[in-house]
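Hallway conversation turned thread

IA: we were arguing at lunch whether anyone had actually written out dITP/XTP pyrophosphatase end to end. Turns out nobody had. So, for the record, here is the sequence (202 residues) and right after it the structure tokens. Reply here if something looks off.
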Amino acid sequence: MRRLDVGPGARLVVATHNPGKLVEIGALLKPFGMDAVSAGELDIPEPEETGSTFVENAVIKALASAVASGLPALADDSGLAVEALGGDPGIYSARWAGPDKDFDMAMETVNRLLGDNPDRRAAFVCALAVAWPDGHVETFEGTVDGTVCWPPRGGNGFGYDPFFVPEGFDETFGEMEPARKHEMSHRARAFALFVEACLKGA
Ligand code: IMP
């Protein structure tokens, strides 16, 4: 497992054009004295996500930014995988909401495809990839198992949150206190693995 250089002056490119993600990841890196800079700020174009898994897409994004910037780069890819739909919408979770990012429609589509199938199992998945300019890559994956419910419940969070009840809870992610979701989310789990492997003790 390769570690990242940390401390004053250390920089990590976050392979995203989403300012929200940069803020979230920047806060995580700060205690290690690292600065997060986004691919957007460096004018690095977003590569086409041609992978067939979350990990493959995260690797494509991290490598594109690392090679273009000459700095290590971190990328994530995430989504909702529904068991009875063979893992759909999966890597296409954002696309199922269409150009208007209509997640009510995306949840309705998933529910319609499930029909009266009693198997409502689903998982949120987050893959993280760290790539170095020499092409070395490390990957991490965090998941939260649960079920999808109908109708969706709760106004917190984003995307498919109101549709997903994590295992061991009665509330959906959309009903849950945001802090509680963030503690146990697929993203938190993937980040914890990344921090442990690449940053801690460095
Ligand atoms: P990404 O930004 O390309 O990884 O897209 C991830 C998509 O998956 C988002 O647009 C959401 O639709 C969905 N997604 C990922 N994580 C979550 C979550 O924590 N809650 C709800 N939806 C999520």
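OS: looked through it. The mean pLDDT is 94.
IA: good, adding that to the notes. Helices lie at 19-29, 54-69, 103-114, 178-184, 186-199.
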